[in-house]
Amino acid sequence: MSNVKLKRVKHDGPLLLRRGGTVYQISHDVKCVVPVGIAVGMLGDAGLVVELTGEDREAISNFGANELRLIKKEFNLQGSSEEVAETLFPTKKKTKPKKKVMSKPKAETSTKFEDLVNAAKKDSLKTKKEKVVSDLEE
Question: 0.85 exceeded by the pTM?
Fold first, then answer.
C-alpha cells in the first residue's frame, strides 16, 4: 500500500478521488493509503506526493503491461517488472565479514612520541664540554 498526499493546502476540504469503486480522501497533512496499482496512475500528477513503500515490492514485480509502462516512464527505468522492483527496492546482500589482521604487541611497537623522547634522552647524554670564552676574564 502506497501513501499519497497533496503537495499544497486545499482549504475547501480534502480531495476526493474515486478509483475502483472506492473513494479516497487525500489531504495535505494526512497520508492516504492507496493500493500500489492505483498509486502508479497518480505518479505523474504534479499536485500529489506519491510514496511507494517496501510493501509494494512484490506487487510491482507482478505488474501488467500498463502499470509497468507508467512506472518505467516516471522513474526512467528499463527491463522487466522484476528488474524494476529490484531497482526501486534493492535487496541487501550479505557480505562475509573481513578477517581481522593481528597487530604487533604493544611492547614491540613504538609511537612517534616515544621515538622523540628516546632521541632527546640520547642527545642529553652526549653533551659536549664547551669552552666558554668571554671578555670579562681577561
Answer: no
- Collect all residues with Cβ–Cβ distance below 8 Å to 62 and sequence separation of at least 6: 81
Using alpha carbons, select from 49, 50, 72, 68 the residue that is nearest to residue 59.
Answer: 68
* Secondary structure of residue 87 in the 3-state scheme: helix
Q: Which ranges of the chain does DSSP label H, i.e. alpha helix?
A: 36-41, 57-61, 65-75, 81-88, 112-125
Cell of 90: 534493492
Q: Any bridge partners for residue 2, and if so which?
A: 34
Closest CA to 26 of 47, 56, 54: 47
Name the helix (H) or strand (E) containing 32: strand 32-34
Nearest to 85 by CA among 70, 68, 104: 68
Instruction: Quote helix, strand, coil % in the chain, to nearest 5.
Output: 35, 15, 50
Provide the grid cell at 24: 479516497
pLDDT digit string, tens, across residues 9-49 = 989 989 999 988 999 999 999 999 999 999 999 998 999 99
Phi first, then psi: give them for residue 31, nearest 5 degrees: -75, 135
Cell readout for 117 is 623522547
